[in-house]
Design goal:
The complex is a heterodimer. Chain A is an all-alpha fold. Chain A has one domain: MetI-like fold (Orthogonal Bundle). Chain B has a six-stranded mixed β-sheet with strand order 6-7-8-3-9-10, sandwiched between helices. Chain B is α/β, with parallel strands linked by helices. Chain B has a domain of 264 residues: 3-Layer(aba) Sandwich (Rossmann fold). Chain B is globular and about 70 Å long. Chain B has 22 helices and 20 strands. The chains are: A mainly alpha, B alpha/beta.
């Protein structure tokens, strides 16, 4: 052994005799607190703005959604001017007021539908994962049939057959998107179900409710919550598409999808294009903003979620 | 000593970048050389930085790790400052890496030959035909059966040990100057390990390649390494020629690593004394059990895993169950616990027969048999605090609440030698050994008669693992609980158990007090197991090989 090696070893021997116990380090450092990035913050501000408009828009709007601000003009598609900042639409109504009334409907229907999708999808999905066997086979097969149908076509058929009131819209969108949530919840549930700690609680003699609510749910919660935002985007686009096709929210009620449809003529005549761009832009800002937040959440969840989707 | 230096680490420093931007040093300035035709072993426990150092010889740093100083020189060129383009040329051609798990390295849907020859063909060092004939020559040198045709199979069609050797062929096919072996035998059974070690040793010698061998197992190192480097916490504690480090360790840490390698106990009066104590009462007995997986038709499962199993476990007795992977030892534990209902036969506890399926067992019957798993990581719910994990059985079986429950909880933590502050922590804030102690505390909370320990130490480092064994022994003395201790490590079992059950292929080969099973004449399979345990001395491998051949012949 060279002199250098010797000195080196002696030095460490001295260090070790001071502290003989070999302290074990934890495998993983405690995970950091969730923090939004700059883009995430921008997203949060935009979403907060739209949520505020959705709730209070109808009280703050300058006119009622069906009021005609300039009854004497008899002019459709008036350009922005004092009294109508975003101009007027096909039927001479104030675009800004309709946009504010419509925000509540578009966002409200979408959120309600997504919540419904989650309640149905998660309950059945985790149930299928845990119970397995025949229950799983039957539910999964039915689900696969619905998944194989194009969502918009399916939505059109249901709404055309049953009618297009707001509750029916919510139930339709909710059930259609429950199929996707079901698959995700079942997949995550399957992963967790085979973990040893679930077997430990089965071995202890715990009942099914305890296993689902106390052992499995806490472990599937995070990925499902971060998927919620993404699913909400799809539902907003779905509800808006239905309205655009004339089967969603019915006139004279305003919502963003139907506003785009109503004012499509403006593009043709080249007049007050803002009446069609404003609702389209609103849909875009809201969905992009939600996406920015979802990005941060899934990055926090370790990117596992993005892989799965 | 004047041989050419293949790889040299010069004051190599590697940091991990944490989420909050602070740097945690992983490798703290390491210096060593690997010369031509030399096998250098990096030895240390998990977290010692041994794999990180080994990977630096490929110029590779795991995501989140960064080289912050020093150099990693391969044939004089510094890899840490090389572009990805240049590194790609070097990897696979000059340096080859052998990972721990061959099963994860091979693509299951491509034939073996295709995967073995791939790197040489891509790097253009050989044509497809040349690479193929060279690969076949390598198969032969690695003692693989049927070297001409084995490469035509798919990865799942060969055994684990064969796959590990095929991976070596994959690494060697482009004649690398440096071979990096990362725990290549750790995942294998002892009997397979010996074959693989022998093949590696032979092939490294013949190829005259330099090699870096990463492992935590000193006994394995003694067989294959020329020089040993002992690492702890990112720095070198001791280095020197293999025999001098093993015969006269200078550093206390090396010494502790050596002590963690338990040789098989000799048949002494003390051992006899310990293992032949009078058994007063049988607490658990397993009678004529037949069990397996898949649907049961005419009382026989589709795939039979266990057959003719008869085991008696006395009160306060430690029964060790040994066997290779696939021998059915874990299945036996699952049958006892009721997780896998047996198709035939029965399990009884203190003369009352238990229902085969745990769903039909009463809460009290469940309480009396507890299970401790191999992987504490997955056995503890990551979203529950320690209080909830250990407290739940107290509540569930004993109806404890509030103050009483908390007091008992702290008592249990003390029993497994953990501070009471751990009560509010989550599992991820604990180390591997501490997690295993929590698993044990949870089992003890039920106040069981029998604890089934399924490979509880095999996922732990040797020093941590031997501390857990010490704890188990202490608890057994104080609480008079029985253990069924399942392991693939005969030395661990022999140093701890009263009786040994040897399992092979779903059947019990031999059972009896430790000293009887270990002393000749024993069953040929037991003999095979005994001679396969690596001993901490240079030259053991060659001796063991002849013994093993004999034992194998006897078995047939």
């Amino acid at each position: 052994m060279s002199k250098e090696d010797k000195e080196f070893t002696e030095h460490y021997v001295a260090e070790f005799s001071k502290k003989v116990s070999f302290d074990e380090l934890p495998d993983a450092p405690p995970s950091g607190k969730f923090r939004l990035s700059l883009t995430g913050k921008i997203g949060a501000v935009v979403v907060a703005f739209w949520v505020f408009i959705a709730i209070f828009g109808q009280f703050l709007a300058p006119y009622h959604e069906n009021d005609i601000p300039f009854p004497d003009d008899y002019l459709e598609f008036q350009p922005p001017k004092p009294g109508a900042i975003l101009g007027t639409d096909r039927d001479d109504r104030d675009v800004l007021s309709r946009l504010m009334y419509g925000a509540g409907r578009t966002i409200g229907i979408s959120v309600a539908a997504t919540i419904l999708a989650y309640i149905v999808g998660v309950t059945l999905g985790i149930g299928s994962a845990v119970l397995g066997g025949r229950f799983d086979t039957v539910i999964s097969s039915i689900n696969n049939i619905f998944l194989s149908l194009p969502t918009i076509m399916l939505g059109l058929v249901i709404v055309a057959a049953v009618g297009s009131t707001i509750p029916i819209l919510i139930v339709t969108a909710g059930l259609i998107y429950a199929t996707v949530v079901f698959r995700l919840a079942r997949a995550i549930g399957m992963d967790v179900k085979v973990m040893d700690f679930v077997e430990v609680s089965r071995g202890r003699g715990e009942n099914l409710w305890w296993i689902i609510s106390k052992e499995i749910w806490p472990n599937v919660r995070m990925p499902l919550i971060s998927d919620f935002g993404l699913r909400l985007i799809y539902v907003i686009l779905f509800v808006s598409s239905l309205s655009f096709l004339g089967l969603g929210v019915q006139p004279p009620m305003a919502d963003w999808g139907s506003m785009v449809k109503e004012n499509l003529g403006a593009l043709q005549y080249g007049e007050s294009v803002i009446s069609v761009v404003a609702p389209a832009f609103s849909i875009a800002t809201l969905t992009v903003a939600i996406n920015l937040i979802v990005d941060d959440v899934s990055a926090h969840a370790g990117g596992k979620l993005t892989k799965r989707l | 000593m004047d041989r050419k230096v293949i790889f040299e680490a010069v004051d190599l420093k590697i940091n991990a970048i944490a989420d909050n931007g602070t740097d945690i040093p992983i490798v703290k300035g390491v210096n060593f050389k690997v010369r031509e035709g030399e096998v250098v072993a990096l030895i240390g426990e998990s977290g010692s930085g041994k794999t990180t150092i080994a990977l630096s010889s490929l110029g590779y740093f795991k995501p989140g790790l960064q080289c912050v100083g020093g150099e990693a020189r391969l044939l004089g060129r510094d890899l840490t400052k090389m572009s990805n383009e240049d590194l790609r040329k070097i990897r696979g051609e000059r340096v080859a890496y052998l990972a721990q798990s061959a099963a994860a390295t091979f693509n299951p849907s491509l034939r073996i030959n295709e995967q073995v020859t791939e790197s040489a063909v891509i790097h253009g060092s050989k044509t497809k035909e040349e690479a193929l004939s060279y690969a076949k020559a390598l198969y032969k040198r690695l003692d693989l059966p049927d070297p001409e045709n084995i490469g035509e199979r798919y990865p799942h069609q060969v055994s684990g040990g064969q796959l590990q050797r095929l991976m070596a062929a994959m690494a060697l096919v482009s004649d690398p100057t440096l071979l990096v072996l990362d725990e290549p035998t750790t995942a294998l059974d002892v009997t397979t390990q010996i074959e693989v070690l022998k093949a590696f040793k032979k092939v490294i010698k013949e190829q005259k390649a330099a090699a870096i061998y990463v492992t935590h197992d000193l006994a394995v190192v003694a067989q294959i390494a020329d020089r040993i480097i002992v690492l702890y916490n990112g720095s070198i504690q001791e280095k020197g020629p293999a025999n001098s480090v093993i015969d006269t360790p200078k550093h206390p840490y090396t010494d502790r690593l050596m002590k963690a390698v338990r040789p098989l106990p000799k048949d002494t009066a003390e051992l006899r004394d310990r293992t032949t104590k009078k058994i007063l009462k049988n607490s658990l007995s397993v009678k004529d059990v037949l069990a397996g997986y898949g649907g049961i038709t005419n009382g026989v499962p589709k795939i039979t895993v266990l057959e003719d199993i008869n085991v008696e476990i006395g009160k306060g007795e430690v029964v060790g169950v040994i066997g290779e992977s696939g021998s059915g030892k874990s299945t036996l534990a699952r049958v006892i616990s009721g997780l896998l209902p047996s198709a035939e036969g029965h399990v009884s506890l203190f003369d009352s027969t238990l229902p085969p399926n745990l769903r039909k067992r009463s809460r009290d019957q469940l309480r009396r048999i507890q299970f401790v798993y191999q992987m504490a990581d997955t056995a503890l719910n990551p979203r529950h605090t320690i209080e909830r994990i250990v407290g739940r059985p107290l509540e569930f079986y004993h109806g404890m609440k509030g103050e009483k429950r908390k007091r008992r909880l702290i008592e249990l933590l003390e029993m497994v030698e953990l501070p009471k502050e751990f009560i509010s922590r989550y599992p991820e804030e604990l180390s591997g050994g501490q997690k295993q102690r929590i698993s044990l505390a949870r089992a003890l909370a039920a106040e069981p008669e029998i604890i089934l320990c399924d490979e509880v130490t095999s996922a732990l480092d040797s020093i941590v693992g031997s501390n857990v064994i010490k704890l188990l022994r202490k608890l057994q003395k104080n609480l008079d609980v029985s253990y069924v201790f399942i392991s693939h490590d005969l030395s661990t079992i022999a140093s701890f158990a009263d009786r040994i059950v040897v399992m092979y292929n779903g059947k019990i080969m031999e059972q009896g007090p430790v000293h009887e099973v270990l002393s000749p004449p024993s069953h040929p399979y037991t003999e095979l197991l005994i001679s396969s345990i690596p001993e901490l001395r240079v030259g053991w491998l060659e001796e063991a090989d002849t013994k093993i051949q004999k034992a194998k012949e006897k078995m047939q």
